[in-house]
Amino acid sequence: MLSGPLAHSGAPLQPHDLLSWAAWAPDPVILAGLALVAAVHRVGRRGPDRGGLFTAGLAVIAVALLTPLDGAADSLASAHMVQHVLLTTVAAPLLALSRPVPALLRGGPAAVRNANRRLGRLVTLDLRHRLRRVLPATAWATAAASLWFWHARVPYELAVHDGRLHAVQHLSFLWSGLALWAIVVGTGGSRRRSPGLGLLLLFTFGLQTTLLAALMTFSPVPWYDVYADTTVAWGLDPLDDQRLAGVLMWFPTGLVHLAAAVWLLTRWLGPIELGRGPAWLGTQARH
Questions:
Q1: How confident is the model over 164-173, as a mean pLDDT?
Q2: pTM for the full model?
Q3: Does 221 map to a domain?
Q4: For 243, which of 79, 82, 259, 273 is 20 to 30 Å away at the CA?
Q5: Which of 122, 283, 101 is closest to 187 using CA atoms?
Q6: Whether the Cβ atoms of residue 37 and residue 58 lie closer than 8 Å to each other
Q7: Is 85 inside a domain boundary?
Q8: In this model, does residue 16 exceed pLDDT 80?
């Protein structure tokens, strides 16, 4: 999403533009939004917390949206893919692990806190239980739908051409990724959920990303006409650029998912103490 001078000139970013001020000029709206969220979170922090994870998540968003990578995304599918991976596979789990909602509510305006309290009083205990039951499937379905929809040819190309729609695309990836990762790492809905559910969601969503990445990597033709004339300046033809995008989705995402799966499996099995089985079995081993 080119938001600076290069975007309005209509000229896609090229390698020689990387040293120009225009390529590095941040979008003031995104910059102000990130700064505001960071300030609100800092005000609401209490005692030992996970503020470092939250800050790291915001920093990853800044790298994705406030550097020349954002401009290069209008010229290269591979650069666009790096943005998507940073938002959904790096920033989203960092933000989910930081458990930011309490700090953001405390640091936000009183009207927001009051509205949250009123909403909490309106939602009955039975409704909360119902929402917690459907939340994992809803988060998974939303993330999968966002993944496939925004990589379909028509919406993808519309987003590249329209800065506002491009912003919606980024928000969709970040929000759906955050919702899914909050369930996966056990910070969304109910903390009593088994890590096994997180493993199931992660595995099945990983199948979606792997399939899409494989389709992009091994496709015999380019999917997006929008890059037909923009990749040559970067030393790539459109098909090679698309295949690189598929690889960039496939392997970094797979590594993050693998690391998360190992962490979840460790939590699920629990420490194996002398004379006891794994914690999830709930049984006492016999001597």
A1: 93
A2: 0.82
A3: yes
A4: 259
A5: 101
A6: yes
A7: yes
A8: no
